[in-house]
Amino acid sequence: MQAFWQWIRREDRFPRHAKLLGGIAFALGLACAVMPRTGVLRLEPIAVVCGTVCLWAGLSALGYGVFVLLAMDLILSPAFWRSLIHLAAPGSLADSAGAYFDLVGVIAMSVALVRQAFLRRQEVEVATPEQDSDVESN
Q1: How far apart are CA 109 and CA 66, in angstroms?
Q2: CB 64 within 8 A of CB 125
Q3: Which tens digit of pLDDT belongs to each residue from 54-67?
Q4: Percent residues over pLDDT 90 in the chain
Q5: Residues near 60 by Cβ (< 8 Å), separated by ≥ 6?
Q6: 99-105: long-range contacts (C-beta < 8 A, 24 or more apart)?
Q7: How far apart are CA 59 and CA 13, in angstroms?
């Protein structure tokens, strides 16, 4: 646990709140995995929001792990599929809304992953011409 807090406190290009939210999203994703009937509908929306903030801040490695974990939670959860196709208890509009929020949230996380890939590609393209001009001048 001490290593986790040292990682949060370490100064680098990622904001501390993004690291903390990524850790929370990962922990909630693990909790959803061990509680597939209720965790997906109650905890996963919070994990989706935290994971998306983590991805938009630029923590792609942790973001990939959270994305895969949450997507697998949704795929394997019987409560998610029942709520998605309205087979849950009558009047459970909140469960259906939560299931759709989870689905849209995981799609938003995948968009953030694609955004990270494009940003990283642009950083590499910007760095490459400078290195080529240094080699030509020598």
Answers
A1: 9
A2: no
A3: 888 777 778 788 88
A4: 0
A5: 113, 116, 120
A6: 99/41, 101/45, 101/48, 102/40, 102/41, 102/44, 102/45, 102/48, 102/70, 102/74, 103/74, 105/44, 105/45, 105/48, 105/49, 105/52, 105/70
A7: 10
CA-CA distance, 57 to 83, in Å (whole number)?
A: 31
Residue 41: CB atoms within 10 A of its CB come to 26
Tens of pLDDT, residue by residue over 17-29, are: 778 888 888 888 8
**Residue carrying structure tokens 């953030």:** 112
**pLDDT confidence of residue 67:** 84
CA atoms in the 13 A half-sphere facing the CB of 118: 7
- Tokens of residue 94, six digits: 């909140």
Decide: helix, strand or coil at residue 38.
Answer: coil
> What six digits make up the tokens of 105?
């949230």
The per-residue pLDDT for 19 is: 81
